[in-house]
Design goal:
single chain, five-stranded mixed β-sheet, binds iron/sulfur cluster, Rossmann fold, about 15% strand
Length: about 575
């Protein structure tokens, strides 16, 4: 019944499964059968999608389905103790559903609230600033079976602390101004302005925006599509959350002017599941734009320019931030990155030419269309023009959103956010680079430290292995499983690192860890595998002495107790003499 209103198309499968899950707390067999029949696709295809996404389940979850964010910043704020406290109070084990079906409790990857953690989700809605007293109230509300609408509003409050606005955040904006400027100047001329601005993609890869738009615009195949990648899942990143919350009009306008330039009449915004709380307000902004003639038919009275935007939700998969994986997800499939070439700008959504750009890229394009390329290019460095939004969290007095000209040194940023006694900074999240306190003159720029926006500060009280293990676990959990070097390699990295950190490693284990890093990095299919070893590689480079100090002095130490493992064999052979025991360590 939840699907009566649904548009039965295979590309909407993920949206339909989300609706079924919300109603039945899982994807029941009868829904799989009905969807398979209605969409004319095999049952196995539906099961594959349900199994791929973290927030979809084939078995029932609790009526209150709680996920606690396992980002390193949440851990630094005491998340582990809070999770155990919550589990104890609710009488449910982490990873399980309580016997009465009332509640389920799980860990989840970063929920995009690193500036206001410890954070979590209840039935998909963001919870912020969790502490013992809030957990006491939450437990009471759950036991009373109070609807979420009766929970205190402050539990769901998401602040958007803009600590340092710059080039873009300081710009005034009137709805339609960028489109009016685009039409007045001309489409080709506006593309030339985007070109001269040297705007590069803000999702991290830094591909030149004008080149992408131009390449798409000249493709003969039609239709063309515009996709806004709002799936910022890199732990420590939350600047797109703020833009979607406070600047959605500019983002949709950027998508619309892109559509005018590339000749598209359909846009899609892929919103990460953790930002469900933004869904309704984004729909309202879209509706206002339709009513103002800024979306729909003949936009701004321009005959024949039709364009509209649909929001589609993700379902908990970090890999869907990768453009081709996101397109697969938008087509209702598991989010497995495609083999390239062809690039999505030639063969993207529905195998048609598609521009996929980050939220911040569309935001910047809107202001470039108004102010011109020169205005933007005057800021930053020659290779990295304009400004960059940073999401700053961790050990600093003022976490939040900061906007800097590209080329700003790390030490200036640390001063602004009130970070003392800095041991290191993770720039670009787990897939980025760990910068030690000896390297703080390095700069935010594509030619030095490239980042999608995550900036996590660690002071000297932090254990570097807690950080590296958290990041390595994250990649092992988020690997999509498509290719062996990443699927197996990330788990081997996790285990080998654990062996060393727990003091069971010898020199040979460290060598093996380094070799494994290179195997995963050089043989994986997509950026996740390519960067999964970065936390280990960058801390090995900056702090080799810490790894060496963990090693035992023997040349080889097994990762498990060999003699104990043979106990069963000894019992079966009915012998327990000295010769039936093995020495654990070869000296
Ligand atoms: Fe999937 Fe990892 Fe391979 Fe990327 S590298 S396709 S995430 S298994």
């Amino acid at each position: 019944s939840v699907l009566v209103q649904a548009d039965y198309k295979p590309e909407r499968l993920l949206q339909m499964l989300r609706a079924v899950q919300a109603q039945y707390l899982h994807i029941p067999q009868m829904a799989i059968e009905q969807l398979a029949a209605a969409l004319h696709i095999p049952r196995t295809q539906i099961i594959a999608v349900a199994e791929f996404y973290s927030f979809l389940h084939l078995t029932p979850q609790g009526r209150y389905d709680i996920h606690i964010s396992d980002s390193i910043t949440d851990r630094m704020l005491g998340k582990e103790k809070l999770l155990n406290y919550l589990a104890e109070k609710l009488k449910v084990k982490v990873g399980q559903v309580r016997a009465d079906g009332l509640v389920s409790l799980n860990n989840t990857s970063c929920t995009g609230m690193c500036d206001q953690g410890p954070a979590g989700l209840v039935n998909g809605y963001a919870l912020t600033r969790l502490d013992h007293s809030r957990i006491d109230v939450i437990v009471q509300l759950i036991e009373q079976q109070a609807p979420l609408s009766d929970w205190p509003a402050e539990f769901f409050a998401v602040d958007e602390p803009i600590r340092k606005p710059g080039l873009l955040l300081n710009q005034p904006f009137n709805s339609g101004a960028a489109l009016a400027a685009t039409f007045a100047r001309g489409l080709a001329e506006t593309l030339a302005e985007v070109d001269s601005s040297n705007l590069r993609g803000r999702g991290g890869a830094g591909f030149k925006t004008a080149l992408k738009w131009r390449t798409c615009s000249v493709q003969a195949a039609t239709p063309h599509y515009v996709i806004c990648n709002a799936d910022e899942g890199e732990p420590g990143t939350f600047k797109d959350r703020m833009l979607l919350d406070l600047y959605a009009d500019q983002i949709f306008e950027g998508m619309t002017l892109c559509a005018a330039i590339i000749g598209s009449d359909q846009g899609l915004l892929y919103l990460r599941a953790e930002y469900l709380f933004l869904y309704e307000q984004l729909q309202r902004v879209l509706q206002r734009r339709r009513e103002s003639g800024l979306l729909g038919r003949n936009i701004l009275g321009r005959d024949g320019f039709d364009f509209d935007i649909e929001i589609r939700m993700g379902a908990g998969a970090y890999i869907c931030g990768e453009a081709s994986a996101q397109i697969e997800s938008l087509e209702g499939k598991p989010g497995i990155p495609r083999v390239k070439p062809p690039n999505s700008v030639i063969c993207g959504y529905q195998r048609k030419p598609t521009v996929v750009d980050n939220v911040e890229t569309f935001f910047a394009a809107t202001h470039i269309a108004i102010q011109g390329g020169q205005w933007f290019a005057e800021v930053g460095t020659p290779q990295s023009t304009g400004s960059k939004l940073l999401s700053i969290s961790g050990d600093c007095a003022r976490p939040g959103i900061y906007e800097y000209p590209f080329g700003t040194p790390i030490e200036d940023i640390l001063r602004d956010c009130g970070a003392d006694d800095v041991m290191g900074v993770q720039v670009g999240g787990p897939s980025g680079t760990f910068i030690s306190s000896r390297e703080l003159q390095r700069r935010i720029a594509f030619e030095d430290l490239s980042t999608a926006g995550s900036f996590i500060v660690f002071n000297s009280s932090r254990n570097i292995f807690d950080i590296v293990q958290n990041f390595t676990d994250f990649f092992a959990h988020e690997s999509c499983g498509f290719c062996t070097p990443c699927r197996v390699g990330t788990t081997l990295l996790k285990n080998q690192l654990q062996k060393i950190v727990e003091g069971n490693g010898a020199a040979v284990d460290l060598e093996e860890l380094s070799e494994l890093c290179l195997i995963v990095k050089n043989n994986s299919h997509c950026g996740l595998g390519d960067s999964a070893a970065n936390p280990i590689l960058s801390t090995l480079a900056s702090h080799p002495e810490l790894y060496l100090n963990q090693l035992k002095q023997s040349s080889f130490t097994p990762g498990f107790d060999l003699d104990a493992t043979l106990a069963v064999a000894r019992r079966m052979a009915q012998r327990d003499d000295d010769a039936a025991h093995l020495s654990q360590v070869e000296n």
